């Protein structure tokens, strides 16, 4: 296939062939030999390359070296660390196209979204550069004379970053660019479904840092959970584990890290709803819902999975939505005009089938989609974007689960309180949105009795956050905040410092002693 051949060239331009972990000799046989993984294009199922996995011994070497690197890196002034991150951002700009194509090749994102993902990495690098001069602590008035009281933020240690396949570059960058200016060393465990993007991104960061005299700040461990994942989360030398993935994975990570009293930053599942109120701009709502529900083939944590429609506009809106869905071009993610690429794996397709079947059995009506397909003869993991309408009063139990696929469940409501209650009734609490031109409705949605999610949008869909705000969610989404705002504080340790510069001992709380 032409476009895949083309993106294979981007593999070359990123120097992946020369990476010691990567082999272009692809082992034959049904399963790769022990110690190797062979990522395949989800579009054509063709193997891309073979990647050597870490084992217990190489994991141990990585952590030992990371601990040593940290001792040096923490002494480098933060604005100097910022200059390293600035240079990394520049390098991402140079390789944006090749990296974006690699994302498309490896995980099936359409070209625009592959490029958008690398842009997100560039944006957070820029943000981190500015931040490197703004790691502010506060000074407070001491209750004692001749005393100074203040807080400072210090580097934390090696940070473990576990990422999912769906944002194989950007989510690492959110963590890595901030943690690097904070003085931490990175240990990245990427998804085994997207190891090549990880190798390429990490190599760029590490090459730049080495060139500037700071080798070893960006490290990778690639391996399965039993051999690498479990070791990393249980490792007391790694004070923070930042993990993105399913709620099931997050519960395990949370427990193991809590057991050793370490810190976690969890960004887990979402089950995001859009409310379309009676007075919404329906044209705007329609376009936004389509992007948020079918973009990235419904495989964002922020994808819209539930549509909560005011009963007065529901039929009209769904009719237009179904027509829009039917016009969506599904196919080769690198081909011009494609809006929806494949799902990531056979297991994802099975999850889609199961969820569609369950919704039908539970009384849902499939308005469009619901089937697998092979666009243009492609053998990859393609499915039809799907809209399922719930009968009045039926909340479809399956819609309470996060299925990582383009399935949108539509419900109706009569008054706003009911719609907000529906928004909040799922276990997850990542993203939420309302379409309304009535500020009384939108402010209620944003108020203390409104959406219970970490992200709330007005007249925008649930996906596509900018990096400037803190990103994350409540309830089963795990409570972590990454990327912008003050998320950097998670990557540092806070120290409260009290200095006496008088000659007398003065005790706090006015205590007289002796
Ligand atoms: C994710 O799906 O894990 O807000 C991250 C968005 C993107 C990030 C999604 N900026 O949709």
What does this 3D model show about the protein?
By secondary structure, the chain is of the alpha/beta class. It folds into 2 domains: 2-57 and 72-268 and 478-494, 3-Layer(aba) Sandwich (Aldehyde Dehydrogenase, Chain A, domain 1); 272-467, Aldehyde Dehydrogenase, Chain A, domain 2 (3-Layer(aba) Sandwich), CATH 3.40.309.10. The chain is built from 14 helices and 22 strands. The strands form 6 sheets. A 7-stranded mixed β-sheet has the order 13-14-15-12-11-17-18, sandwiched between helices. The protein has a 5-stranded parallel β-sheet with strand order 8-7-6-9-10, with helices on both faces. A 3-stranded antiparallel β-sheet has the order 1-3-2, with no helix packed on it. Helix 1 (2-13) packs across helix 4. The radius of gyration is 24 Å and the shape is globular. The model has no long low-confidence stretch (mean pLDDT 96). The structure holds 2-aminohexanedioic acid.
């Amino acid at each position: 296939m032409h476009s895949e051949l083309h993106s294979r060239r981007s593999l070359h331009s990123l120097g992946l062939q020369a990476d010691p972990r990567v082999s272009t000799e692809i082992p034959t046989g049904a399963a790769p030999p022990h110690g190797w993984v062979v990522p395949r294009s989800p579009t054509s199922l063709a193997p891309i390359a073979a990647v050597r996995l870490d084992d217990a011994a190489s994991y141990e070497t990585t952590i030992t070296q990371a601990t040593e690197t940290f001792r040096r890196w923490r002494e480098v002034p933060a604005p100097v660390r910022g200059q390293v991150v600035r240079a990394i951002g520049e390098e991402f700009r140079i390789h944006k196209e090749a990296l974006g194509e690699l994302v498309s090749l490896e995980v099936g994102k359409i070209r625009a979204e592959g490029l958008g993902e690398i842009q997100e990495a560039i944006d957070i690098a820029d943000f981190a550069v500015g931040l490197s001069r703004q790691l502010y602590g506060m000074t407070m008035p001491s209750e004692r004379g001749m005393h100074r009281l203040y807080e400072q933020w210090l580097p934390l240690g090696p940070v473990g970053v576990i990422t999912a396949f769906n944002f194989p570059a950007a989510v690492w960058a959110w963590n890595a660019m901030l943690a690097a200016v904070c003085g931490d060393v990175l240990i990245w465990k990427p998804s085994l479904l997207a190891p090549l993007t990880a190798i390429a991104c990490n190599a760029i960061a590490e090459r730049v840092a080495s060139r500037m005299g700071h080798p070893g700040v960006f490290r990778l461990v690639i391996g399965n959970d039993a051999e690498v994942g479990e070791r990393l989360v249980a490792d007391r030398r790694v004070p923070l584990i930042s993990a993105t993935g399913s709620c099931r994975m997050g519960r395990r990570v949370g427990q193991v890290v809590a057991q050793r009293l370490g810190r976690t930053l969890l960004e887990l599942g979402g089950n995001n709803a859009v409310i379309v109120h009676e007075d919404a701009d329906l044209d705007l709502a329609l376009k936004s819902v389509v992007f948020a529900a079918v973009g990235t083939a419904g495989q964002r944590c922020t994808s819209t999975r539930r549509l909560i429609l005011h009963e007065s506009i529901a039929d009209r809106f769904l009719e237009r939505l179904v027509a829009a869905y039917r016009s969506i071009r599904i196919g080769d993610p690198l081909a011009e005009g494609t809006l929806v690429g494949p799902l990531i794996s056979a297991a994802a397709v099975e999850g889609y089938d199961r969820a569609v079947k369950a919704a039908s059995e539970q009384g849902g009506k499939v308005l469009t989609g619901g089937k697998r397909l092979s666009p243009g003869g492609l053998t990859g993991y393609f499915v039809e974007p799907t809209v399922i309408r719930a009968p009045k009063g039926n909340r479809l139990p399956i819609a309470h689960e996060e299925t990582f696929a383009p399935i949108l469940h539509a419900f109706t409501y009569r008054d706003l309180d009911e719609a907000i209650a529906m928004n909040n009734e799922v276990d997850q609490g990542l993203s939420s949105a309302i379409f309304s031109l009535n500020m009384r409705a939108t402010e209620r949605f944003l108020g203390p009795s409104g959406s219970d999610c970490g992200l709330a949008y007005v007249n925008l869909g649930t996906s596509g956050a900018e990096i400037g705000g803190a990103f994350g969610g409540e309830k089963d989404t795990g409570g972590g905040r990454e990327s912008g705002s003050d998320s950097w504080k998670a990557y540092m340790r806070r120290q409260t410092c009290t200095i006496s510069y008088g000659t007398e001992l003065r005790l706090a709380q006015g205590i007289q002693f002796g």
